[in-house]
Amino acid sequence: MTSDTTQTEAVTAETGNETEELRNLIAGARVVLWDFDGPICRLFAGHSAERVADELVRWLEGRGLHGLLTGSERQSLDPHVVLRAVDRRHPGSDLVAELEARLTREELRAAASAMPTPYADPLIRTWKALGSRLAITTNNSPLVVREYLAGRDLDPCFAPHVYGRTQDLAHLKPDPHCLNRALTATGASPAQALMIGDTPTDHEASLRAGVPFLGYAHNARKEKLLREAGATVVVESLEPILRTLRMIRPEPSGA
């Protein structure tokens, strides 16, 4: 047996195992907890998250608060990193409230040009049609989520289960607070749920809540980060989830 053959068989076995794990995750899910930015849409597709993070840093610097952030925090491409960093040093302050309000305004602007993740809409509608309960568990503002869902006519699929950023920023993921809120509201045990997320913080939150995790990674960098965080099932597209769901849980006639 050649090394190439051995490698091919190993890859095939790994793919087969992951396909079976995907089937098991979907079959066991009665409540599906979705992260928002990534699995459902690219919120900042036309409104750069990097620019938003930079503007938050500049706003702080303009108030003489440059020293609140470390060098890596100032250079972060994620506005939530900036928000969390300030909250750790001044929890519950007016400064944090103003920074959060500014981020919410930027997210609301971004929602107007957000790009739907391929297959997200039909997957959401199919899962709902099959009787599953759906919730959104996100670090984004719930106002932003609801605006986006209304624009896609998806709000009936989730209402009222949208659990986003609150004034208590210590509850941002990886804290499992929003997942636990969703579980309590839907009356589901962690084992009956499934979390779909695209970041290591999503994965950690699901672990801490005891909820099975399905990773979504639209590029190799995202997949690498999820794998390194311990995610065992990661898809590069939502299409195989939709296909598998339709195979193991056919929609009722006339649905």
Topology of helices and strands:
Elements: H1 3-28, E1 31-34, E2 41-42, H2 49-62, H3 71-74, H4 79-89, H5 94-111, E3 115-116, H6 120-129, E4 133-137, H7 142-151, H8 155-158, E5 162-163, H9 177-186, E6 193-197, H10 200-209, E7 213-216, H11 220-229, E8 234-235, H12 239-248
Helix pairs in contact: 1-12, 2-4, 4-5, 5-7, 6-12
Structural notes for this entry:
- This protein is α/β, with parallel strands linked by helices.
- 54% of the residues lie in helices and 10% in strands.
- The protein has 12 helices and 8 strands.
- β6 (193-197), α10 and β7 (213-216) form a beta-alpha-beta unit.
- The model is unreliable at 1-14 (pLDDT under 50).
Portion in helices: 40-55%
Radius of gyration: 19 Å
What share of residues are in beta strands? 5-15%
Q: Sheet with the most strands?
A: 6 strands, parallel
Count up the helices.
12
Q: What class would the helix/strand composition place it in?
A: alpha/beta
Strand arrangement, major sheet: 5-4-1-6-7-8
Cα separation of the termini: 50 Å
Uncertain parts: 1-14
Task: Give the beta-strand count.
Answer: 8
Give, in order, the helices and strands: HEEHHHHEHEHHEHEHEHEH
Which properties best describe this structure?
six-stranded parallel β-sheet, disordered N terminus, 12 helices, alpha/beta, two-stranded antiparallel sheet, 255 residues, globular, 8 strands
